[in-house]
Structures are given as structure tokens and as C-alpha cells.
Amino acid sequence: MGERSYTAIAATLVDRAVAAIATVKAFNAFDHELKALEGALIGIKTAAGKIIALWGINMGLTQFFMMSMFVQAFWYGSKLVREGRNTPGEVMSVFWACLIATSNLHMATPQFLLLAKGKSAMASLLNMMEAPAPEDSSHHSTHLIPLSRKVTTFRKIQPSKCHGELEMINVTFAYPSRPTVPILDNVTMYFPEGDTTFIVGGSGSGKSTVAQLLTGMYSRQSGHITLDQQDLQVLDERFTRQHIALVSQSCIMFDMTVHENVAMGLAGSPSGRRPEDVTREEVIAACRVALMHEFIRDLPDGYDTMLGNGGANLSGGQKQRLAIARVYLRDPTVLILGTFKFRGIDLLF
Fold it and tell me: Within this chain, do residues 109 and 178 fall inside the same structural domain, yes or no?
């Protein structure tokens, strides 16, 4: 389990550094990333050494006992033949029967290893799901509901209406892979209802992290994130998902038709409508708003064209436009658009 954990950390560090190599160079973070990777590789080396030693002892003992059984079987078989208690044919029949049974058991051993790995992975997943939320050390505002570990034992709040007022109060956040490097440090932001707010900054400044925190995808380390003056942690997740929508940089397309992909915007919507209830006229209207109608119209089957392999035949911008059409059809109270470039500047709104 330790070796797998260190391998996952090392893979994450390498993937993040390679994907954002321009940011690493811009902030002269090469030494920092290399030091973090060296720590993970040392952990892998230590865990791998223990595993190799264990497997070496295991295989050595297994081969020793197997060869001992061969020697004992030949010696005892020859003894029975010399004494006339069995014929050579009977001894060889028993010997080969035992050999075939042992070979089949040996072939089943890798399957037991797969079961053990699955059990270990399930244990890690359950531990992550059941891990208690970190305690909040920040001061509570007078209009907020105090948070504690006991909140999870009560039914969460589901207000009758959502106005869409979002606020971040002294929020600090760091990714679990780098807990000592805060992405946001004591950040306070206010997003009034009914207005359009832009967050402007360069790559790596935390815009996407703010979007994920506002949607409840990430859990902040300290501070408060409120929706209509109620902390997100005490609000029902279904309520926040119904009223807050996010169009991220990497949009997910399903192996369905264009019409069905856009209609998926109504899945779990507060209106109670289902994707099956969406008409072609509504989908066309949404795609017109997203400036995708002409492109879809020129496809071989129009709105009935299948987007296979997660929309691999679409560009990133086309996926984002379809996601905008999807969220337009949903009509959420709060819409968070992912990072877009405008004249060389990254925008989040």
C-alpha cells in the first residue's frame, strides 16, 4: 500500500509539472518540484526494497519446499517399488497427479494477488470517504452557522430558494499532494447576486481552484465559503448542485448524440424536467446561443451525430460551446465559467 501511495504521488507531481512546464519555468520552481519528486522516489525505493525482500524470501521458501517435495516423492516412490508394495506405473500416476494439481494451484496464485490488490484499493477508498473533515480554526461570523464534526450527524439545510450570493471569507487551500504550499492564502472575495464578476490572473494564480471551491468540489482548509450567507458545508449537496453550474476547461462529453449531450443539462435540475423531455427546438435554441448551430447543422447527421469516445472528434473550444449550450438549457442560479483567454489574459467569470 505504501509503494502504491508513493507511486501515485510521484505520478501526480510529474504530470502536473510537465503539463504546466511554462509555469514551473516562470516561477523558477524547478528545484522545488525536483525536491518534491526526489522525496516521493525515495519513498518508492524504500517501499520497493521491502517488497523485494519479502517476495525474495517468499519465493525462496516456496522453491525450497517444492524441490523438497520432489526429492521426497521420488525417494518414497522408489522405496515402495523396491518393497513391492506398488508398481512403477502407480507411483508415476500419483506423482503426475500431484504435479498437475500443484501447477493449477500455482496458476491460481496471481488471481489471489489481484483480489488482495482490490481489497487494498477498496480499503484506501473507504478510508478516504470516511475521513473526518479538517477542523476549521477561523473565527465564525455572526450570521453563519458554526461548524463542527457533529454537523454531519444532522440533516443538512435545503433552502426553499437560492438567490446566488457567494462569498469567500479568509479561505486557505492547499492540495493534498502539496499540503505545505497553499494555493490560496487567507483569500476573501464577494460575488453579489445578479452581477457578472471576473477573476483575472495568470496561469497558476488559483482561478480554477476558486471555481472548484465555489462548487464544493474541493474542501477548504480554513475560512468560510457561503451561499446566501449559509456555509456550503451545512447546505445539502443536491441543492448546491442544482443551483450552481460550472463550465470548466475540460468539458465531459458522453457517448451519445449531440442532442442527448445538450439535453443532459436538465439531469437533476431544480425544474424537475428530465433530459428525455427536451425538444429539438429547445436544443437548437441553446446551441444558437452557444454559436454551435451552424457547425452541428453541417455534421453528417446533424443533431443526431454520435459523439463517440467522449467527443474525441471535437476540439476543446467546441466541447466548451456544447457545455455552454447544456448549461443554458439548465438555467442555473449561479453560472461559473472556467478559464478563458482574452487578449493574452486568463479570465474566470
Answer: no
Of the residues 83, 108, 130, the one at which a domain ends: 130
Q: Assess whether 196 and 300 both reside in one domain.
A: yes
107-144: pLDDT as tens digits: 877 788 788 888 878 887 787 776 555 444 444 433 44
Q: Is 108 strand, coil or helix?
A: helix
Same domain, 190 and 320: yes
Are 332 and 183 within one domain?
Answer: yes
Per DSSP (E only), the strands in 85-181 are 166-173
What pLDDT is stored for residue 346 in this prediction?
Answer: 46
How far apart (Å, rounded) are the C-alpha atoms in residues 255 and 258? 9
3-state secondary structure of 124: helix
Instruction: Please tell me the pTM assigned to this model.
Output: 0.51
CB 208 within 8 A of CB 248: yes
Q: Domain range spanning residue 115?
A: 2-130
Cell of 265: 443539462
Q: Who's near 7: CB < 8 A, 6+ residues apart?
A: 44
Task: List, in sequence order, every residue forming a beta bridge with 201; answer none if it has no partner.
Answer: 346
Which of 7-11, 22-26, 280-284 bottoms out in mean pLDDT, i.e. has the lowest? 22-26
Q: Tell me which residue has cell 453560472.
A: 335
In a domain, 142, yes or no: no
Q: Give the span between the Cα atoms of 22 and 10, in whole angstroms.
A: 19
How many independent structural domains does the chain possess?
2
Cell numbers that stand for 175 in this block: 492540495
